[in-house]
Amino acid sequence: MSLAATEHGTSEVVSGHGSSAHGAVAHGKKGLGNPVLGMLLFIVSEIMFFGGLFAAYFSLRTSAGTWPPEGNEAFLIKEHVLFPSILTLLLVFSSLTCQIAVWRIRRGDRVGMNRALMLTVILGVVFLIGQLYEYTQLGFGIADGTFGGTFYILTGFHGAHVIGGVLMLGVCLYRGSLGQFSAQHHDMVEASSIYWHFVDIVWVFLFALLYFV
Amino acid sequence: MATTTARAAGLQGSRLYDYLTTTDHKKIGILYTISSFIFLAIGGLLALGVRTELAQPGLQYMDESVYNQLFTMHASVMIFWVIIPFLAGIGNYIVPLQIGAADMAFPRINALSFWMIPFSGLIAASGFFLGGAADAGWTAYPPLSNITYSPGPGMNLWIMAVILVGTSSILGAVNFLVTIFRMRAPGMTLFRMPIMVWTIIVTSVLVLMGTPVLTSALIMLFVDRNFGGSFFDPTTGGSAILWQNIFWFYSHPAVYIMVLPGMGVISEIIPVFSRKPLFGYKAFVFATAGIGALGFSVWAHHMFTTGSVFLPFFSVMTFFIAVPTGVKMFNWIATMWRGQISFNTPMLFALGFLSMFLIGGINGVFSASVPVDYAVHATYWIVAHIHYVLFGGSFLAIMAGLYYWFPKMTGKMLDEGLGKLHFAIAMIGLNLTFLPMHTLGLMGMPRRIADYSPTAGWNDLNLAATVGGFLVGISTLPLLWNIYISLRNGKDAGPDPWEGNTLEWATSSPPPAWNFDRLPAITSERPLFDARHGRSGSDHA
Amino acid sequence: MRTPAALIALLAVALVLGGCQAAFPPSAVTEEGLQIENLYVLVFVIAAIVFVLVEGLIIWSVIRYRRKPTDTTLPAQTHGNLVLEIIWTAIPLVTVVGLFVASSQVLGVVDARKPEQVSVKVEVVGYQWQWKFAYPDAGIEIYGTAQNYPELVVPIDERIEVTLVAQDVNHGFYIPEFLFQRDLVPGKVNHFEFTPNKLGTFAGQCSAFCGLLHHAMGFTVRVVTREEYDAWLIEMTPAPAPSESPVATETDLTAEVKEWAISLSGASTAAGEVTFGLTNAGNIPHEFIVVRSDVDGEALLEQVDPATSRLDETSLDAIGEQPEFSPGETKVLTLDLEPGRYVVLCNIAGHFSSGMYADLEITAN
Question: Can you say how many angstroms the Cα of residue A200 is from the centroid of all Cα atoms in its chain?
Fold first, then answer.
C-alpha cells in the first residue's frame, strides 16, 4: 500500500481496527458498548414516533372540548381502572426482573440471568394477553371518533413495541440458554433491557394519560 | 447450508452474489449509488412526462388522472429514493474511510438499511400497475388523501413504502452516529473530523428525530383510510391542519437532510481544488449545527396561507435560518480567495452548487416574508425555489461527490472532457427549466395543474422550461457513457489523484476490504496535507 | 464609435426593462396588494444586491485566483479571520431582521380585520371542482361550472370581507393580481378583507391541489363602481320563489337531487313518453342521467372508475339526460322509455358513488 504519509517520515499509527471488518464490537472505555449506544439512539427515534402520536392526541383532545366526548358510555374508561392497573403493575415488575437479569449476567451468573429473563418474558406475554382482553371489554373501537382512534393507536403501537421487546428478550433467552453470554460479552442483553425499560416507561405515561388525566 | 448450495450453483464466487450478501460499507455505498441512479431515471422520466404535457396548453398526451400520478410520484421518488439515498450512499462509502475506521458500527444493519430502499421503491411504484399510483401530491394532504377522495390502492402502497424507506433512514442514522462517535482513529478529535463527517452527524440527528414523526403521521393516515380512523377527517372530529403540522415537522428538516451532506461534499472539494484549508472550520461546524437546530423550528412556513399558524414566530425563524446558510457561502468563497483554483469536474460542479444554491436560497427568503408568501405560495415560484435548492443544490453536490470519489471507489479516473460536457449541459438545462418558473409563479401559474389556459400568457415560458427539462435529461448521458468507458479503460487513479487532505486518500483505490494498512498521524483536520507538507498541529481558527 | 455604443446601451436597457416585468408580480389591484407589491420590491432590491455581490465574488475569485503554471508553492494557508466572520454573520442577521420587521408591518395591514368598516360581505364555498359565491345580505348565490367560471362582483374602494368555507378537501382562493391567496380548510372557516382600488376583471384560480380537475377550478373577480354594483345586485336578486310544484306540465315522476341522493316520487311507471320533473334541492350543481341497466344502482357502483370517480359514459346505455343545473333550479326532462330496468343517476365526479342514484322500473302497458 503506497501512502503519501510515508514520504516525509512522519510518525505512523498502526490501525488497531484493521482486522475487525466483520462486525466485531468495539468496547468503549466507559463500558458503553456500541450496541447499547445504538439502542439508546434508536430509542430517541422511538420517543419521537410516540411524540407524533401524542401530539395528535393532545391536539385532538383540546379541540374536542369535552373529553371523553359525550354520547358513549364506553368512553368512561376512567371508571374501570382496576384491570389495567394490575397490568401496569405487572409490566413495572417485569422491568425489575429484566434489570435483575442484567445485574446477574454482569456478575457472570448465566443461570440466574436466564431465570430472570424467562420471568420477564412471561410477564410481558401476560401483559399482552391482558391488553387484548381489555380491548374486547372496552366497548368502543378505533373507528369510534377521535377518542377511539387515539386510544387504540397509542395503546396499539405501544403493544406492538411490547411484542418487539418480548421477541428481543426471547432471543436473549434463547442465546442465553445456549450459553452465549458472559460477564464480559452480553451487549444484546444490555441493549434489550434498555429497550424494555423504555417500553415500560412509555406505558406508565400512557396509562396515566389515558386513564387518569 | 445456504453457502454450500450457492457454491454448488457456481454462484458463490460471483460478483453478483458478493454484492447481494455484502455487509462491507464500500460495496453497500456502491449499491446505494446504483439504486439511486435507477430511481433517478424513473423520477426523471416522470418529470419529462410532466414537462411534455405542460409544454403547450391543452391535454395532449394524458388525462388529469395520469398527470396527477406523474407529479406525485416524481417528487416522492426524487426525495425518498434518489436524493436521500444518494447522500446516504456517499456517506456510507466515505465516512468510515474519513475517520480511519474499518467499517460501520453495525454492518448487517447497514445492509438491511440498503435493501429496504429498492424494496420499498418497488412497492411505491407498483401503484402504477395496480390501478393507479398515489396521486394526491407527495404532501398527501387529507381529506384529499383520505379514502373518500383517493379510493385506489396507490395511496396505501405509497404510505407503506414511505414508512419502510423512513425506517431504512433511521437505522442508517443510528449506524452513522455510533460509527462516528465510537470508531474514529486515534488522534481524530471531533474538531479534527472532516466537515463531511460533521454534516453527516447533524443530518443523522435530523433523520433520527424527524423521520419517526412522519412515520406516525403516515400510520394515522393509514388508519383513517383503512380502519375508519378520525385523525384527519374533520367530519368526525379530526383535523386536516393536524396532518399538515405533523407532516411538515419532518418534511422541513427533510430538506436539510437533503442538503447538509451535499454541503459537506462541497466543503471537501473546494479546499482541495483551491489548495487552501476550509476558511472558518469551527464556524462551519456551528453553522451546520445551527441549521439543524433551526430546521426544527420553521415547519409551519409551508402553511402560512392556512390561517392556522402563529405567523411571526415561523416567519422570523425562517429569516434566521438564512444566516448560517449565508455564513457558509462566505466561508466557501473565502476558501477560494487567494487560493490556486483548478477546474477539474468536481470543482466545476462545486462552483455550480455555489451559484445555484445561492439563487435557491435567495428566492427562499422571499417566502419567509409572510405577505410575499401570500403572493407566491403554491405557484411556480415555489417550484423554482425547490428545484434550485434540490437540483441546483443537492443534486449538483451529489454529482460533485461522484466525480470526486469515483477514482477512490473504482481505481479509475473519469474522463474530464465528458465531465465538463455533462456540467455545461446540466447548467444550461437547469437554468432554462427553472429560471422561467419564477416569472410563471409571479404571473399566477399555480402548481400541480395538468393544464392551463392558452390565453394566460404562460405558453412560451412553459415551452422553454420543457426544452430545458429535456436538456437536463440529456446531460446525464455523457455521465453514463463516462462511467462505462472509464470502468473499462480509464486511467489508473492511484491512491490520491487530487492531492486530497483527508484519510480516504491514504489508502489504495479502491481500498482493501479492511480499508487501511496504516494510518498517518492525525494532528489536524487535514492529516494527509500535513503528512505531505511536513506540518503538524491543529491550527484552525 | 458612438453609434454602436448607443445601440448596445439601448439593447441593454430594453433587456433590463423586458426582464424587469419578468421579475415582478403583476400590478396590484387592491390596497393590501399594493403593500405587498412594495414589500416585494424591497425584498427584490436586497436580493439583487446580495446576488450580484456574492455571485460577483464567486466569479471574481474563480477568475483571479485560478491556478497558474507559475504557482509552484502553496498559497497562504489562512484558516479563518474572526473579525471578518463576525461581520459577515452580523450583516446578514441585521438584514433579515429588517426584512422581518418590514414584513410584519405589511402583514398587519394585509391581515387586518376591521368589521366596522366592511361594506360588502361575501361567502366563498369551494368544492371539487368549482366555487359558489354567496352574498348573504342580498340573498344572492352564484354557482360556477367548468365551462362557466363564477364571477365575484364587488364595488371599488370599499372594504370587502370574504369568508372561505371548504366543502370537501383543501382548496385555495388565489387571485394573482391581488398578490394574495388564502386556503379553504375543511373543518375551519377562514376570513380575510380587501379593498379593491382598480376597476376591471381579474382572474382567479384554486391554488391548493384538490384532485382531478384542480386545474379547471377558476373564477373571476370583477371590480365595478358602486352604481354598477347596486344595479348588478338588483339584477341578480332572485325573484320570489314559485309555489311547491315547480313544473306546469304534467309529470309522471318528480325527482329531487341533492347531496347525496336522488329521490324519485315512484319506483316504477308505465312505458312510453315519461316526463321527469327535476328539482335541485342541494347546494351544488347536479345532473340527471337516465340509464338503461340490467343491474340495479347499487351493483352499478362497482363500475365506477376509481381514477375519475365516475362511470365511463361510453359503456353506459344512456337514454337521455338533463345536464348540470344549479341549486334551486327546476327542469323538465321527457324521454321515450321502453319496458325494462333503469337507473337514474348523477355522474359528476364522486356524486354517483356518494349515493346519487335511484332504481326505476318501466313496466309494459
Answer: 7
B368 close contact with C: CB closer than 8 A: yes
* pLDDT tens-digit map of B446-473: 999 999 999 999 999 999 999 999 999 9
Q: Do B447 and C107 touch (CB under 8 A)?
A: no
Closest approach of C360 to chain B, Cα-based (Å): 27
Distance from CA of B362 to the nearest CA of A (A): 32
Give A189→chain B minimum CA distance, Å. Answer: 17
Task: Pick the residue from chain C with its C-alpha nearest to B134.
Answer: C307
Per-residue pLDDT tens digits for A151-163? 999 999 999 999 9
The whole-chain average pLDDT of chain A stands at 87
User: Are residues A15 and B220, on separate chains, in Cβ contact within 8 Å?
Assistant: no
Residue of C nearest to B139 (CA): C209
Q: Among partner residues B102, B108, B220, which is closest to A17 by beta-carbon distance?
A: B102
Distance separating alpha carbons of residues A80 and A102, to the nearest angstrom: 35
Instruction: Tell me the C-alpha distance between B480 and B484, whole Å.
Output: 6
How far is residue B264's CA from residue B291's CA, in Å, rounded to a whole number? 13
Pick the CATH number of C18-68+80-110 from 1.10.287.90, 3.40.50.2300, 1.25.40.10, 3.40.190.10: 1.10.287.90
Return mean pLDDT, chain B.
95
Q: Cβ separation of B518 and A8 shorter than 8 Å?
A: no
**Neighbouring C-alpha atoms within 13 Å toward the C-beta of B433:** 29
Distance from CA of A196 to the nearest CA of B (A): 18
Q: Tell the burial category of C247 from Cβ atoms under 10 Å away from its Cβ (0-12, 13-18, 19+).
A: middle
Which residue did the predictor score with more confidence, B78 or B12? B78
The sheet with strand C272-280 has its strands ordered as C261-264, C253-258, C272-280, C330-337
What percentage of chain B carries pLDDT values higher than 90? 94
The residue extents of the domains of chain B are 19-95+127-447+457-533
- Give the mean model confidence (pLDDT) for residues B231-235: 94
- Asked if C18 reaches chain B (Cβ–Cβ under 8 Å), the answer is no
Q: Which chain B residues contact residue C81 at CB under 8 A?
A: 279-280, 334, 541
| Closest Cβ–Cβ partner in B177, B213, B220 for A48 | B213
pLDDT along chain C (365 residues), means of 10: 57 60 93 97 96 96 94 92 96 97 97 96 94 92 89 97 96 97 96 97 97 95 96 84 57 88 91 92 88 90 81 88 87 92 90 90 87
Which pTM was predicted? Answer: 0.87
Residue A1: per-residue pLDDT: 38
Residue B351: band (very low, low, confident or very high) from pLDDT cuts 50, 70, 90: very high
* CATH code for residues C115-236: 2.60.40.420
Q: What is the pLDDT of residues A110-135, one digit of tens each?
A: 999 999 999 999 999 999 999 999 99
Residue C229's φ and ψ, nearest 5 degrees, are -65, -45
Q: Which part of chain C has CATH 1.10.287.90?
A: 18-68+80-110
Overall fold of domain C247-363: Immunoglobulin-like (2.60.40)
Report C:243-282 residues touching B (Cβ under 8 A).
none
Architecture of domain B19-95+127-447+457-533: Up-down Bundle (1.20)
Query: What is the C-alpha separation between B120 and C178, in angstroms, rounded?
Result: 44
Q: Radius of gyration over alpha carbons of chain B, in Å? A: 23
Residue among B25, B507, B519, B535 with most chain A CBs within 10 A, to mutate: B519
Average pLDDT (B247-264) is 97
Contact state of B371 with C103 under an 8 Å Cβ cutoff: yes
Instruction: Kindly report, as residue ranges, where domains of CATH 2.60.40.420 are found in chain C.
Output: 115-236, 247-363
How distant, in Å, are the alpha carbons of B424, C247, C249, C273, C289 from that of C253? 71, 11, 11, 11, 14
Contact B144 C209 (CB under 8 A): yes
- Mutation target for B interface from C181, C190, C210, C304: give the one with most B CBs within 10 A: C181
Residue A11's pLDDT is 40
Nearest CB to A42; choose among B174, B185, B246? B174
Which residue do the cell numbers 388529469 mark?
A: B64
